[in-house]
Write a sequence for this structure.
């Protein structure tokens, strides 16, 4: 009996030794992409959507075999998402933390005020030895305030140009509604994005021959809008253009309904073309026209929307940008032969920056995306309108 | 100022006063806790909004009538109020005024983050009663839902005053507020009165949160901080510890806020409200209705 046990132990021992001695297949490499944005606070939903979109895109890439690194090995993407609370100081702290690791790129942030501050700590001009700014490439997916990427040669964005969107929208409105002339504006005054975009809306409206009768202003956390809507009512405009995020957009639309303000046309802010607006005030938002760089109108976009939902997010113009960024990164990593090893971090960051800066065109969910010398994107867009509680495509300018 | 401007100004004032009923309810919550414990509960407004959120989540999937949602908000407010006492006050050394102040700041942030993590920060629709009713009087319009908010706010205030002045609990609360040592010697339990005060103010807060949600038509975590500031302003202007003061100050702040919005615009509106606060702090630090000074 004892002999049996000894023999069994010997067999097990021999098998274990064999297992140790046999060379294992090459260990699969992983490239961690660190993203950051708001995962807490009132804009948490943006972070949730971005993270879901990045993970969805990573899954698509990984399923197709992954990314080819500079030494020819294949690697899978892994996503890490850090929270900056939409706060500039925390954003800077997060990016410094990411830059102290082996990361060669970071994706983010959510908020324009964070992007503006942290792009400011990057080296302004590549090769300027007198500038001790951080030499680390960042590509933004959500922060939408115009012209931010030009702050540093290390900063890039894949966000739509609101200038181009509203320029196109007002030119189109002029042809579609030649009898509509007067506009009243509504602006959320204390939010960088909505305030800056309102300037664009006003400018483009005037360029296209519309008359701005005036504007009502409110703050992001305001609770009553009766005074502002009465100003609007007295002006009796044909068009009302609201540059505000979903919470106050809905507050104003509900107050407009109460006071019987019924303009012939409603125009909204890009960020309001999201599910939050429809959850908050689908009935009152009926008919509102918003330009956006995402709608599930192509097979790729529809698939992306489905995958993002699978990862617990919602595909909109912001998260779609995050989704596209993963494919941009894959292409640049392969083209620039990035090694993604701890000993090549500095060189990989430079290669990544150069690769991103050299891009003239990338693939997007709605079609080709152009790149400008200022490291910004020129994205295809379309106009959607709220109809029967859903966002539906109204017009696609390039078609 | 032409006739239309005058009408608009009066309309702004009326809308503001009606919405001010919610500020009054918040002010009452702050002032009642201060009156009993001589402590500021900075998490009160966040707890009120939290209660309104909780009422939506509890009744999610059920097509509940608005009245039931409001009742649920009041109930949730009571529960949250009790929890705030247990977490932020019960085991904190009350002799150190900063300790409870900081614990309530922590609770404010905690409640806010719980709301944000539960809802992803997405605004949620909140039901309203009489939202389609508009009372028209010549050039004036009075919103039915705001009138309801105002009347319900007034009813809550009356009930609260009756509770304080017509019941044994009210008597114990007032005794604890004025002479805590003497009250304890008479057999009144300090802890019991404190927790009942927090539950009562929590119920008032829950109703305030529901009324705010109903008046706006939506709930957002964005509301907590501005409402905390408004509640504190109302409490100071009304006089720390004075319920009639909180009521009048709430309506006053609501009305003036809208009036300043009309006259000076959004960028200056809050400036004047803050100036009003400083005027009171300097010239009338006891507020509109400062409570009688304690005998000893």
């Amino acid at each position: 009996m004892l002999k049996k046990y000894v023999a069994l132990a010997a067999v097990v021992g021999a098998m274990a030794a064999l297992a140790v001695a046999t060379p294992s297949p090459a260990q699969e490499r992983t490239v961690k992409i660190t993203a950051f944005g708001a995962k807490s606070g009132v804009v948490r939903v943006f972070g949730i959507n971005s993270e879901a979109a990045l993970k969805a895109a990573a899954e698509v890439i990984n399923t197709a075999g992954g990314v080819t690194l500079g030494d020819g090995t294949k690697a899978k993407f892994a996503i890490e998402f850090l929270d900056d609370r939409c706060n500039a100081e925390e954003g800077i702290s997060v990016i410094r933390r990411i830059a102290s690791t082996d990361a060669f790129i970071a994706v983010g942030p959510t908020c324009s005020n964070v992007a503006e501050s942290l792009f400011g700590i990057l080296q302004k001009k590549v090769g300027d030895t007198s500038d001790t700014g951080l030499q680390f490439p960042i590509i933004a997916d959500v922060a939408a305030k115009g012209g931010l990427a030009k702050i540093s040669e290390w900063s890039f964005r894949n966000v739509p140009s609101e200038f181009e969107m509203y320029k196109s929208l007002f030119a189109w409105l002029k042809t579609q509604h030649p009898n509509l002339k007067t506009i009243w504006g509504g602006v959320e005054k204390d939010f960088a994005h909505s305030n800056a975009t309102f300037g664009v809306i006003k400018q483009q409206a005037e360029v296209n021959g519309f008359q701005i009768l005036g504007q009502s202003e409110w703050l992001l956390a305001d609770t009553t809008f009766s005074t502002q809507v009465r100003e609007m009512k007295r002006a009796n405009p044909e068009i009302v253009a609201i540059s505000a995020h979903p919470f106050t957009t809905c507050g104003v639309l509900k107050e407009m309904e109460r006071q019987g303000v019924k303009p012939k046309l409603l125009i909204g802010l890009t960020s309001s073309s999201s599910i939050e607006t429809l959850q908050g005030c689908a009935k009152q938002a009926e008919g509102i026209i918003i330009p956006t760089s995402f709608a599930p109108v192509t097979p790729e976009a529809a698939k992306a929307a489905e995958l993002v939902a699978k990862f617990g997010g919602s595909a909109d113009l912001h998260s779609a940008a995050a989704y596209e960024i993963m494919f941009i990164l894959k292409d640049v990593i392969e083209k620039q032969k990035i090694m993604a090893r701890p000993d090549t971090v500095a060189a990989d960051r430079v290669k990544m920056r150069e690769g991103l800066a050299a891009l003239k065109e990338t693939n997007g969910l709605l079609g080709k995306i152009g790149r400008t010398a200022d490291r910004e994107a020129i994205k295809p867009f379309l106009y959607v309108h709220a109809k029967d509680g859903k966002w539906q495509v109204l017009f696609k300018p390039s078609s | 100022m032409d006739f239309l401007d005058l009408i608009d100004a009066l309309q702004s004032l009326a809308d503001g006063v009606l919405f001010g009923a919610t500020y009054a309810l918040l002010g009452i919550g702050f002032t009642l806790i201060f009156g009993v414990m001589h402590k500021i509960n900075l998490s009160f407004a966040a707890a009120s909004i939290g209660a309104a959120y909780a009422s939506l989540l509890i009744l999610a999937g059920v097509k509940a009538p608005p009245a039931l949602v409001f009742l649920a908000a009041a109930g949730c407010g009571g529960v949250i109020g009790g929890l705030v006492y247990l977490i932020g006050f019960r085991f904190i050394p009350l002799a150190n005024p900063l300790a409870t102040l900081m614990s309530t700041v922590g609770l404010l942030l905690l409640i806010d983050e719980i709301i944000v993590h539960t809802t992803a920060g997405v605004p949620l629709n909140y039901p309203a009663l009489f939202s389609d009713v508009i009372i028209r009087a010549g050039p004036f319009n009075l919103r039915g839902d705001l009138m309801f908010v105002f009347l319900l706010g007034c009813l809550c205030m009356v009930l609260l005053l009756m509770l304080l002045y017509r019941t044994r609990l009210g008597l114990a609360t007032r005794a604890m507020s004025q002479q805590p040592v003497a009250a304890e010697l008479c057999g009144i339990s300090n802890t019991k009165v404190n927790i009942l005060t927090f539950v009562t103010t929590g119920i008032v807060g829950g109703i305030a949160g529901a009324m705010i949600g109903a008046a706006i038509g939506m709930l957002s975590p964005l509301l907590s901080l501005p409402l905390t500031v408004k509640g504190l302003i109302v409490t100071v202007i009304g006089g720390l510890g004075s319920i009639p003061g909180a009521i009048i100050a709430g309506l006053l702040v609501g009305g003036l806020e809208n009036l300043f919005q009309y006259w000076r615009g959004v960028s200056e509106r809050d400036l004047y409200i803050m100036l009003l606060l400083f005027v009171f702090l300097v010239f009338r630090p006891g507020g509109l209705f400062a409570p009688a000074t304690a005998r000893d």
